[in-house]
Amino acid sequence: MSTLVASVPSGHVYVRHLSPEQGGGPERLPDPDPCRPTHPAGAVWWPPVMLDPEWAARADFDVFHLHFGFDACDPDRLADLVDVLRSRGKPFVFTVHDLRNPHHEDPGAHEAHLDVLVPAADALVTLTPGAAAEIERRWGRDDTVVLPHPHVVDLPTMAGTQDRQAQRHASRLFRVGLHVKSLRPSMDPATILPTLVETVRGLPGAVLQVNAHRDVLDDDGARRDDDLAAYLRARADAGDLELHVHDFLSDEELWRYLGSLDVSVLPYRFGTHSGWLEACRDLGTTVVAPTCGFFAEQGPVLSYGHDESSYDADSLATAIRTAYDERPRLGADVEERRAQRRAVADAHDALYRSVLR
């Protein structure tokens, strides 16, 4: 009989790709519908019903595995959830994706959550050795299991995009992408944009493409940034960059966009790990990542100095020029990702069996 796992949330792409590609392995409960907790949620899993102590007290599962979705929870509520799991003898597994929440300017709220969850977990997982070392330093847990992030893009799309990239590699413009999305607090595009504009301007056949959501650049946008909007439109008018303003992209649109880039620059000043980075690697797009967090431990990237206290413009310019001159192939091929997914799925299966013993 397979292990029945309450994964929070089971519908997230990371969690979906913890299962074997051909099926089998542990069975994961579907996310309950937030409006009708007795029904599966489908694509809508927020807020996660599985985090309600009342749900955990009566649901049928063998192991409780938390990944995401606890941002808005009161720490006392999470402590109640842990108490329910203990009272029922249900093992609690916690994957520490973020040691610093990219959505929070102030780290205090996320730290309060981690102070409840990390010490209480029967097993801890994280994605990189650096994050595991930080967990040991902060909480004294030296038993964190390090398992890599599986692929984000589905494998057929990944294969097709990489094939198309190889075919047109020599004939197209060298395209450097910066995606400011809806300006998470962790993002600092204004600091790095002048360096990108100046560097890309000096590379023959190169173009800087900046994508932003309408809520940041539209005049009536909910997250309108006047200074950023003015800078981007002025530089676009001057021919220094291509500006693409749009709503949220579907997965298909996002993969097509990322696959059209040679380089994707991550504009973060704090963070831990990145699913965006993994998607770029799936699609054969070189990532230029800041030195904050543990991005460089996830996979091969070009790094530049950037965190909350400092920024090294020369290192960013060097990373862009290196990508242009050397055209490194830093992505992961399909068979590598397929093998990695098998290994990660097997490791989770073994972990669940271990905590149940």
TrEMBL record:
Residues 16-36 are annotated as: Disordered. One of its GO terms (molecular function) is transferase activity. Keywords: Transferase. This is Glycosyltransferase. The lineage of its organism: Bacteria, Bacillati, Actinomycetota, Actinomycetes, Propionibacteriales.
